[in-house]
Amino acid sequence: MKKKWLVSVITVMMCAASSVCVAQTANPDNALLQLAQSHKDDLMKDLATLVNFDSGTDDAKGLKQVETMLALRLKEVGANVEIVAAPPAAGNMVIGKMQGIGARNIMLMIHYDTVFGTGEAAKRPFRVEGNRAYGPGVADAKGGALLIVHALDIARERGFRDYKTLTVLFNPDEEKSSLGSRDMIAKLAAEQDYVLVYEPPESDVVTVATNGIAYVHLDVKGKASHAGSAPEAGRNAAVELSNQIIQLKDLGSSAKGTTVNWTVVKSGDRVNIIPEKASATADMRMSDLGEIGRVQSDADAIIQKKLIPETEVSVRVENRRPPFSRNPDSDRLAAMADGIYKELGKSIKPLAMRYGTDAGFAYNPKSTKPVVLDGMGIVGDRIHSSDEWADLDSVAPRLYLTVRMLEMMGK
Questions:
Q1: Which residue in 54, 58, 59, 113 is the catalytic one?
Q2: Is 113 known to be catalytic?
Q3: Which of 136, 222, 282, 308 has the least C-beta neighbours within 10 A?
Q4: Catalytic, out of 59, 174, 204, 358
Q5: Is 29 in the active site?
Q6: Distance (Å, whole) CA 39 – CA 379
Q7: What is the pLDDT of residue 85?
């Protein structure tokens, strides 16, 4: 009896010390597990429908088809749904809101656009092989969107209303830096106690940190001239660009975890003309937002050394997506997820990922709210490739995880 009392005291102390309580029970909720398993077939049918719609970020027709279906599913689980334009995106945001009787504000969010062009779904329609489903966007992130709506349906069946507000946000432009939806994500997130993001993990993990993303733009202006009769009269922008890329190759920082990789290079369109202009763009990833200023300053100094006289060189760092930085509250929320998975005889590891997601727009490093956790989606791999897959065996456990987390966060 004394031992049980001590455990209870420790649990209360842990909950009091943080906005996230990580206490768990050891046994599974069998009724919930059965509901999660019973939803698997319906979720797979919905997944087949969504995957067979093209929904690249610029595909207005396909995005509208996905939007319509997701909005319908949210209405079916009792949400008030609003469709909000997200220019310059070709699609709209789908925002669902539900009013409960509890004290916490909770948001579930994920994008529904893909990186694939029009016609890709016809070439690679949804198919199942063993425990894996294939098709464009099957894991990233149509599987995640459907986990949200089916988890809400299960919560409705259980009569769960222990929240103040429950908000769902589906956005159409994550694959192109969420230019049209980032402000809404930040606005809604600022009103929440918790935000769960349904990007696909590669295994039984959740994501407690993601990198920020920036672009480094390098531009060179030279002087055109005939490449055969008067090359010496020109100032070759392509050669100077090459020189600068070599000089700028070490802009990253291993100590800070910052990477800068030159990926796009453009110059000239005629073989017989010395190119007057050349440009390159680098992909930059960082966990520290201050690295943007440091890279800009270092690059400005480096480009002063030129190989080709009388050329003009400029460099600009463009912030595209802030990092979701690792923090104690997200770690504790990950511990809650692990405790829930242990009810199923499984475990979840917290990981910091090198990619960038919309969690960066939801997370506020200057506030304890909201507590953000990413990687809540369907397990999958080979994202953005022609053999992207989703693990169908993860559907029931991930549905169970979401509903249990909602119930625990609402307390």
A1: 113
A2: yes
A3: 308
A4: 174
A5: no
A6: 17
A7: 97
